[in-house]
TrEMBL record, chains A, B:
It is found in: Cytoplasm. GO terms for biological process: purine ribonucleoside salvage; xanthine metabolic process; XMP salvage. Xanthine binds at residues 20, 27, 157. Converts the preformed base xanthine, a product of nucleic acid breakdown, to xanthosine 5'-monophosphate (XMP), so it can be reused for RNA or DNA synthesis. It is an enzyme of class 2 (transferase). Keywords: Cytoplasm, Glycosyltransferase, Purine salvage, Transferase. This is Xanthine phosphoribosyltransferase. It catalyses: XMP + diphosphate = xanthine + 5-phospho-alpha-D-ribose 1-diphosphate. CDD domains: PRTases_typeI. It comes from the Bacteria. GO terms for cellular component: cytoplasm. The keyword Cytoplasm applies.
Length: 197, 197
């Protein structure tokens, strides 16, 4: 998706060889116009799928998922919770996730009321790296008997192994920008020359 | 906003005299169609204001803020972070917040890059209760020299004091459903008869 890759080149910041900061448009300040372009693109890539619900995980996936849902007929969005308050249901599907960026383990939870064996979900997230959060979401779908129609990722860092986890499940994975490598402050997209950012 | 009040009556769950659970459409499963109606209503209520940015706080405000932003010309959304990872900037505005639902204190942070004295913000959140999260957002705007053009709340629980905190600042506050009291499983909206839910 050219508009996205150009935005990463323009506004992304590479830190070391693993961190790509895109907090000016994707996960702290949010560019809702760009999110709409992302929604159109996911609709195009999953146009042959029957999708009844979007599943994501807090925090950065939520805004993207809500905009994307509009391109699938305003279907419901459900987000897995990392931080449950006293209002949270106690009857949940749960899965353990390791966060490499926060260097902690945590549990994600989805109320059993909001995901079930009649749902056909599209899982949406901002990043795919090691795939640990995604494995947790897939695990929750399996527990609920939910059909996963696809996984839509805004930025994939393909050198961290997440793609293999999803493809071995036989799930259609669509990433709108695939970063193959990062070094010396440069992003190298898949099948393209390196881009200085 | 009648469509919202009717939805609260239909799908909300009152627990005790302080908790109104609306996780089936507002803060766990998200009704994006309803969020669009909310966006139209906020645009109508703040139509005379020059608003350049929407400010909210993770988690539940984010999806609503993104949809609302579309009705203000796809202006940027910035959300204050409660849980900052290693990717978070270190140069932030910060404010302390007490959460009554999670019974903890926490710090909210906004990078100094994404809020400044040229911004005219509309603050959006799902709930207004004691106003502690809102006070933190207002505090951050003051630190940044940002003009607050208004506060837009989906559900206000008016018996917990948050309105006074905002009105004493001279800020326009618009709440789309104002709950005056909750008891015996009932919600009593402002200026209306009690509704059984």
């Amino acid at each position: 998706m050219e508009i996205l890759k150009n935005r990463i080149i323009k506004d992304g910041v590479v830190i070391g060889d693993r961190i790509l900061k895109v907090d000016s448009f994707l996960n702290h300040q949010l560019d809702v116009g760009l999110f709409n372009e992302i929604g159109k693109e996911f609709k195009n890539r999953f146009k042959n799928k029957n999708i009844s619900k979007i599943l994501t995980v807090e925090t950065s996936g939520i805004g993207i998922a809500c905009i994307v849902a509009q391109y699938f007929g305003n279907i419901p969005v459900v987000f897995a919770k990392k931080h449950s308050g006293i209002n949270m249901d106690t009857d949940n599907y749960e899965s353990n996730v390791h966060s490499f960026t926060k260097e902690t383990d945590y549990v994600i939870k989805v109320s059993k009321k909001y995901i079930n064996d009649e749902d056909n979900v599209l899982i949406i997230d901002d990043f795919l790296a090691s795939g640990s959060a995604m494995s947790g979401l897939i695990d929750i779908c399996k527990q609920a008997g939910t059909t996963i129609q696809g996984v839509g990722i805004v930025i994939e860092k393909s050198f961290q192994g997440g793609r293999e986890l999803i493809e071995k499940e036989g799930i259609q994975l669509e990433s709108l920008a695939i970063v193959e490598d990062m070094k010396n402050g440069q992003v190298i997209f898949k099948d393209e020359k390196s881009k200085i950012i």
